[in-house]
Amino acid sequence: MSETNMAVKSTLSKLLSLNGLCAIYKKQGPTSAHVLNEFKETLLKEAGVKNVNPRKRQKHDLKVGHGGTLDSPASGVLVVGVGKGTKMLSTMLTGSKKYTAVVELGKATDTLDATGKVILEKDFDHITRMDIEEKLKAFTGNIMQVPPLYSALKKDGQRMSHLMSTGQKVEPKPARAVTVYNLTLQEFEPPLFTLDIECGGGFYVRSLVDDLGKALSSCAHMKSLVRTKQSQFTLEEHTLHEEQWTLENVMRTLQPCPDTEQNEKQSKDKTKKKCDKKSELKCDKNLEEKSEQKSEENLVKTTKMENTT
């Protein structure tokens, strides 16, 4: 084997041995799934895998998955699970999320963001900075929120956004409990203003913006959205941009699964104990059967002796 082939094999081996979480940057436009596939394809190509098709399972496959969808128009932190990290996303991502949203007053859209069709226009000249800050108080803490119709939530196995885009009638999901830890108004230049949001899982910024517009006796939609933090991963400190998608950078920033080796050892020990237990039960059963067989033989002998007598 040539030195080049050995180097390629070594790179692929390192790549496939990775288990943990890292953060990559999702730009505006593509879906989270598309960005994830590009990330996977880039790493596999670096490892020398030819004719990469990230959507198909291959012999030398790299397992990747993301820890929470960012809508196509949104950008920012996209946490990626690699290897066994794909099964640890929900366990390791227990912290809050942070977003920066730019809101436009006076226009409401069917998607609640700038990609949708304007369905309502209302006056906003009466709205002041103080009005917004006062209304934000009602959206802080534990609140009830109705998810958008255009969302990744599913109905009958299909995404609601897909059903809506194909003209099918979709009923809104029931309001559900969500948590907003912090909600602050930053810039205010009507019709635009900027919000910084820290929230828990299941929260939709678009729904917040729509509800806030109504609370201000007007309407509004989300003009842009950036996720600046997801759990322990921040945009400034941890996120790898597209030009940084290399094995070296992933290995440098990867947060390994906790006690991966220990978990594997515990799993093996557990399996061994099960096998030992099965063997023990089988052994006991054999002894029991032999004992019963011997008892039957003794009984037969005794009966014969009695008959002879």
UniProtKB/TrEMBL annotation:
Keyword check for Isomerase: yes
Biological processes annotated in GO: mRNA processing; mRNA pseudouridine synthesis; tRNA modification
Subcellular location: Cytoplasm, Cytosol; Nucleus
Residue segments, region Disordered: 287-309
Residue ranges of domain tRNA pseudouridylate synthase B C-terminal in the record: 206-242
The Pseudouridine synthase II N-terminal domain, residue ranges: 61-205
Cellular-component GO terms for this entry: cytosol; nucleus
Alphabetical UniProt keywords: Acetylation, Cytoplasm, Isomerase, mRNA processing, Nucleus, tRNA processing
Segments forming a coiled coil: none
Record HAMAP family: TruB_bact (MF_01080)
Name assigned to this protein: Pseudouridylate synthase TRUB1
